[in-house]
Design brief:
Number of strands: 0
Distance between the termini: 24 Å
Helix content: 55-70%
Radius of gyration: 15 Å
Shape: flat
Largest sheet: none
Number of helices: 4
Order of helices and strands: HHHH
Length: about 80
């Protein structure tokens, strides 16, 4: 991804977050959704896919961008 496109993408994400915050959603949007009594079981789940550089890059791209996973899973997953 070119630095220019990455800059545009980051600016768009920041603007989206700013708009969301201004509408009153606040940081609650990024809070973890797993109930406290189930968090340890959720953390114990292992990934069935190999931890290759390619797989990690694809997952990161989905989590942080296209799929916007952090909206439900929080910034730390």
């Amino acid at each position: 991804m070119s630095p220019f496109f990455r800059g545009i993408l980051m600016t768009s994400v920041l603007l989206l977050e700013a708009v969301t915050l201004s509408w009153g959603a606040g940081q609650d949007v990024l809070r973890p959704r797993v109930p406290h009594d189930q968090i340890e079981a959720a953390r114990a789940v292992t990934n069935p896919l190999p931890a290759s550089d390619e797989m990690i890059a694809k997952g990161k791209m989905l989590f942080e961008g296209k799929a916007f996973c952090k909206a439900c899973h929080g910034v730390d997953g």
